[in-house]
Amino acid sequence: MKFTKMHGCGNDYIYVNGDKEKILDEKKPEIVRRLSDRHFGIGGDGVIFINPSREADFEMEMYNMDGSRAEMCGNGIRCVGKYVYDKGLTNKTEISVVSCGKTKYLTLFPENGLIGSVRVNMGSPILKASEIPVIADGEEVIGERIEVDEKIYQMTCVSMGNPHAVIFMDEVSQLPLEKIGPLFENHVRFPNRTNTEFVKVLDRENVQMRVWERGTGETLACGTGACAVSVACILNGLTKEQVAVKLLGGTLQIQWDRKENLIYMTGPAVTVFEGEIF
Ligand SMILES: N[C@@H](CCC[C@H](N)C(=O)O)C(=O)O
Question: Which residues carry the site feature described as Could be important to modulate the pK values of the two catalytic cysteine residues (predicted)?
């Protein structure tokens, strides 16, 4: 199987051309776990298949490291844009990519003939608790208490197609994510598990974030997570509509256009290496 290893802000996935590499759907979770393994496989936060589509220019089929399917991937979709342009599968710089039935629109920025960065219209954030899903008394979860490991945190929940719980804190660099991350991910309030972002607001235009991803663990960046964080910051009155989200692996620029209710994410897409695995 031919593959390309790519990353967006250090959130690294293995990209496979699903049109050329035919794999039975039921075999994919096991193959994803094998390929993602950093000791016995290629190594990555998961695998993304790029498939032909009737409803959009391309389809993105995204799997986490544990073999679970995710509805959306922000860093992944930027790399899909780079993959299809750099490999000549399209010559357009405005393309559409569908994932789990939801289409996103990408603007690709070429530098010397190859894509260096991508802007994605990530659509509208979902705040309705039942659609995220998160178990709640009210319609939305904004700055609500949650108890984890005998500690009370304030959480705001947002779906960007996939579920996110955003926790604001005074400090995030020393957090024991390996311990508390899985407790949030598998908390009884999240029927589909959750991604969790731990955020320190630096000023009204900059925030620092670490993430524990559903199905993968701590990663260096999460694009949908950065979008959810910006929404949570604005809903809690903490930042302006344009926010630089500083992650362990780089910075993403996120803008929530409140008039149109659309989120725009801009960031890098990088190819690391290509190979073939048997
Ligand atoms: N890293 C991704 C999100 C990947 C999926 C996530 N772990 C989930 O299960 O929802 C991003 O950049 O958005």
Answer: 164, 213
One domain, residues 107 and 171: no
* C-beta of residue 78 within 8 angstroms of C-beta of residue 106: yes
Q: Domain check: are 146 and 76 in the same one?
A: no
- What is the distance in A from the centroid of ligand 1 to the CA of 213? 6
- ipTM for this prediction: 0.99
Per the domain annotation, does 124 fall within a domain?
A: no
Query: Which pair of tokens denotes residue 35?
Result: 């390929």
| Cα distance between residue 174 and residue 203, in whole Å | 20
- The rounded Å distance from CA 161 to ligand 1 centre is 10
Nearest ligand 1 atom, CA 75 = 12
- The per-residue pLDDT for range 66-87, each reduced to its tens digit, is 999 999 999 999 999 999 999 9
What residue has token string 């705001």?
A: 156
Whether 79 is catalytic is no
**Helix axes 74-86 and 223-235, enclosed angle (nearest 10):** 140
Q: Give the C-alpha distances (Å, rounded to integers) separating 60 from 133, 139, 199.
A: 22, 31, 28
Active site residue 222: yes
DSSP string, 158-204: EESSSEEEEEE-S--TT--HHHHHHHHHT-TT-TT--EEEEEEEEET
For residue 83, what are the domain limits?
A: 2-115+267-276
CB neighbourhood size of 276 (10 A): 7
Helices (H) and strands (E) in the chain, counts: 4, 18
Whether residue 50 sits in one domain with residue 148:
no
> For ligand 1, is residue 70 a contact (CB within 6 Å)?
yes
User: What is the pTM (predicted TM-score) of this model?
Assistant: 0.98
Residue 236 is predicted with a pLDDT of: 97
96 and 216 fall within a common domain:
no
Ligand 1 atom with least separation from CA of 224: 13
